[in-house]
Amino acid sequence: MIKKNIVLLFLLAAILPKSFIDNLKEYPPIWTGSFGTVVIDGDIYNQISMRPEFNYRNWGIGFDLYLYIDADGKLYDETWKFDSWKDTYRTILDKFRYIRYGYPGDELYFRVGSLSNISVGNGILVSNYSNAMEYPAEKKIGIQFSKYLDSGIGIDYIQSDFRKMPGLIGLTLNYPVSPNINFGVSLVTDINQTGALDDSDDDNVPDFIDDFPNDSDYSRDTDGDGLPDELDTDADGDGFDWFDYLENPSDTTVFNDDFELDPDGIITNQKQIVTFSDLKESISGIGVNLTYHINENFKFYSEFAQLISKCNNCVHPSGEDWGPGYGLTPIGFKGHYGPFSFKMEYRNSERHFIYSFWDRSYELNRAILNNIDNNNDGIPDIETKSQQLYKYGSLEGLYIDLGGSILNLINVGLSYQDLTGEMWSDSNQQWETDKKNRSFITNIGLNTAKIPKLKYFNGFYQRANTRNPLDFNSPDENTVYGYNLGVDISESMVLVYKARYSYKFNGIDSNGDSIFKQVYSMFVETQVLF
């Protein structure tokens, strides 16, 4: 492998023209190295990494070359596999931080790698989505592409991941009706929400029902003796499975009387192989928007979206069949002036719809594995985000988004939704009226130019679609917050600390209320600039 890489470098040096090499020298690369600690799947690893960045005209490329080493000196090799073409493909993709051409708003722009702050239209379906919320435990390689034609028509495409089943695929077409009026239509989908569940060996069987999660050849062990059914001569633990080995299963005289045979003649209660296809549950949305630009700073808009889902058990607790509904923003006003920006909307939705379904925390609550088995099928229940729509009724109200810089010291963003109407009560098993559905999202950043030793600081908090988003004592699956902190150690060395907090379902208490367990992700490293 090393010899092949050396030969390739010599070939590139011989093939590339001298003019290209000379031009490349005009854009010196940025070299960043780091060492620190990361937490992956609850285990602590020491990290050593190199993150070079290269820019050439409109092109930019960043690499993420790293090693994770545990306390025993063993290498975390899940991201360094070359056993198959599929493993090799994923390993190579994993080493790219991004590949970029152009910048947002250019006639042609695309970025492959980590994506953040992705919105579609005015945000009725997708708002501030990120595919990097689980980094470094889970690294996604997505794409954002936009192209403006000479006619003014704009095309945008988004895919959140290439390596695994993407949680977001979106296509948007923007058409200029007149110089001041623009019409847009968007189609967004998650083809299988359960694709968010872990599958360590890539055998298409989720880890939680895979008896051999690190071996792609086997997935079930019916009797729990450590042998896969395919290699176990007594798969169900009640005697030799003679019927799988005899040419004539009705003739057991070849065995002596002391040889214990399976008395049933079948593998009793054999575990079924359950794949992602068996668990498939999709969610899609189609949206249209009409925007009137007053000038470069201000605009009015209207937006409509319909959610569409296919599930096998869409029966409401009331006993009625149900499906996702629609949401409408009859009037919205958006603008910016100097360092300040704002966005105001009147919202009106029918039952089983929430605004900004694909938000910042979507990859965290896209599919949640519960620790209970209400179906009595031996498989823990999976709750997808679309299944949570059952509890939202017809709602209307206001949404406000404010942002700006205060005294050039603090950058603040605040978003607040306050809707009133129907909400389903699980305890009373009925729709209740005049109830609140609120969301609160905030982010803060400091201008550290005048703060000694502080390289950067920013934090965020989000809790969406709940009755009291400021109830910090009772977080739920829609709660996520975190911060990034960078401290100068020396002129070329920065100590970086990143933390993320989210919550996942952890059972029911004695009062019938849901319990949520905190999921903590920590990332500490020392960055060195060369």
Compact description:
It is built from four helices and 24 strands. The protein has 530 residues and is mainly beta.
Report on the architecture of this protein:
- The chain has a domain at 281-529.
- The protein has 530 residues and is mainly β.
- It has a 22-stranded antiparallel β-sheet.
- The protein has helices at residues 2-15, 18-25, 85-94, 362-365, and strands spanning 32-40, 43-50, 53-56, 59-63, 65-69, 96-101, 108-113, 142-148, 154-159, 169-176, 181-190, 282-293, 298-310, 326-337, 340-349, 367-369, 382-384, 392-406, 410-425, 430-446, 454-466, 479-490, 493-508, 514-529.
- The protein is globular.
- The protein is built from four helices and 24 strands.
- A hairpin with a 6-residue loop joins strand 6 and strand 7 (108-113).
- The longest helix has 14 residues, at 2-15.
Name some characteristics of this structure.
530 residues, mainly beta, 22-stranded antiparallel β-sheet, two-stranded antiparallel sheet, 4 helices, 24 strands, 7% helix, disordered N terminus
* Distance linking N and C termini: 28 Å
- Mean of pLDDT: 86
* Number of helical stretches of at least 4 residues: 4
The main pleated sheet reads as: 22 strands, antiparallel
**Helix-strand pattern:** HHEEEEEHEEEEEEEEEEHEEEEEEEEE
Proportion of β residues? 35-45%
Compute the CA-based radius of gyration. Answer: 27 Å
Structural class designation = mainly beta
User: How many DSSP E strands?
Assistant: 24
What overall form do the CA principal axes indicate?
globular
Helix content: under 10%
Low-confidence stretches: 1-16
